[in-house]
Amino acid sequence: MSNQYLDPNLKVFSLNSNLGLAEEIAEVIGVELGKCSVTHFSDGEIHINIEESIRGCDVYVIQSTSDPVNEHLMEVLIMIDALKRASAKTINIVMPYYGYARQDRKARAREPITAKLVANLLETAGAHRVIALDLHAPQIQGFFDILIDHMQAVPILADYFEGKNLKDVVVVSPDHGGVTRARKLADRLKAPIAIIDKRRPRPNVAEIMNIVGNIEGKTAILIDDIIDTAGTITLAANALVENGATEVYACCTHPVLSGPAIDRIKNSKIKELAVTNSIALCEEKKIDKVVQLSVAPLIAEAIIRVHEEQSVSTLFD
């Protein structure tokens, strides 16, 4: 390993959700991934064994709570308990994708706020810090009473689109809630923004209403934090073309891409979908239209800065 990190007290472990990203992060930092095994008993219970001493170490655990969400969440909770009992100095959970983040408020009577419950579980298990990437709602940071560092993928997405040298770009938010995110990308690309006004009659069903802003004759870049069933983003892309956009690109941080998402993207007006590797994509989701960008250098730099007690926010200046 060419760039070896010299402090032996920094340990990076990976669980099962995104081993490829964890290996990349460890390589950028210059450490070997910590040795641990995640196995199952015959009844499905998870068993974790840490196979090296971590006494007095600052441990960073890479785990996205992506599909299967509950399995990956239990893995990280059990890992925290194992690390605590093995006398880790600090337990830092690096969660590129924070599952249950969309359940962040009571939208109707008698609903849970599951994003808060997950925060409580991580704290109660014994985590000292969470490093997250593009939480669905920034207010989720307030659900934690432990330290939390919030990363942003917009610079990575902006660099990618800058490199394509697109002409007459307009950045489009697929809903009112994503305007701040669209503005950040637009500022970096020095482009105007537009907003799609939509109504969602029920979960995972979006109805496009109208477009606020000038998109005629322009190259549109749709941006969202999560693309799940891809209903919103594909309807938005089709509406943009129908209203005069010359071509449509799309991007997001978290490619959940569940259910009919891949078929919808294949059959949509989207020319290309740029996503990050916050969630590992299985082979059937790696279609020609989908380009995956790595967040490993960003997360690795954040881990080093946290470990060396340097500023993390300056990463996004």
Automatic annotation (TrEMBL):
Keyword ATP-binding: yes
UniProt entry tagged with the keyword Transferase: yes
Highest taxon listed in the record's lineage: Bacteria
Residue numbers binding D-ribose 5-phosphate: 200, 224, 228-232
Record note on cofactor: Binds 2 Mg(2+) ions per subunit.
Location within or outside the cell: Cytoplasm
Domain Ribose-phosphate pyrophosphokinase N-terminal, chain residue ranges per copy: 10-126
Binding site for Mg(2+): 136, 175
Catalytic activity: D-ribose 5-phosphate + ATP = 5-phospho-alpha-D-ribose 1-diphosphate + AMP + H(+)
Amino acids binding ATP: 43-45, 102-103
Active site: 198
Entry keyword set: ATP-binding, Cytoplasm, Kinase, Magnesium, Metal-binding, Nucleotide biosynthesis, Nucleotide-binding, Transferase
Main location group: cytoplasm
Description of how the protein assembles with itself and partners: Homohexamer.
Protein name: Ribose-phosphate pyrophosphokinase
Species assigned in the record: Peribacillus huizhouensis
Name of the gene: prs
